[in-house]
Amino acid sequence: MSDAEAAETDASPAPSRPRWWVYVLVAVGVAALAFAIGRFSTFGTSSAVTPNPADIGFARDMQVHHTQAIEMAMDIYRKTDDEELRSLAYDMATSQAGQRGEMYDWLVQWGLPQSGAPLMSWMTDAASGHAGHAGGAATGTPQTDAELRAAMGMATADEIAQLNAATGAQADCLFLTLMIRHHQGAIPMADAVLELGSVPRVLAVAQSMKQGQTAEIDAMTAMEQRLGCTQ
Question: Cβ distance 103 to 51 under 8 Å?
Fold first, then answer.
């Protein structure tokens, strides 16, 4: 190749990703690094701090929440043809599986069962007796498990069945709709434990989770626009 041809090749513009993708990679990468550093620096120490009801409830309820997110993410990962969506789904599934495993371990270290009180019942300031972020769940108003799951942004059984059956652009768009709502339901839970929790590692994970899922909501909203999901 001549010098002129090499210079022309070097001057060719490189393909670029959408700007939002750079931002989400940076945000998720920073959150993942902070999560990993905190995880290994505090390994085996969670049991040294006495958890309060918010720490315990967050560990239990967020495992339930993450389990559904992992299921949805792996479903779209297997069948989408959109490489950016596939990459994001893989990141969601692996990061949330790691967080779910750590929360399971907290409860083991604390000598507590993996399930207990009704969903979101911990999202109340026990010291003041005032309802926290849970709304009706903390005011004494009767709520079914389905209503509580809906308040957490979780998909119904019918919605999961629709996602499993969908293909192509319909599946991509349905996944984005359900997962944006799912993430939006997780952020108030993270806010609640940041306000009410006591275990430093729990608070660090909640903060990392809030930052990562906020960035992913922005990424998924941009994907919806790119794919023409929203009008």
Answer: no
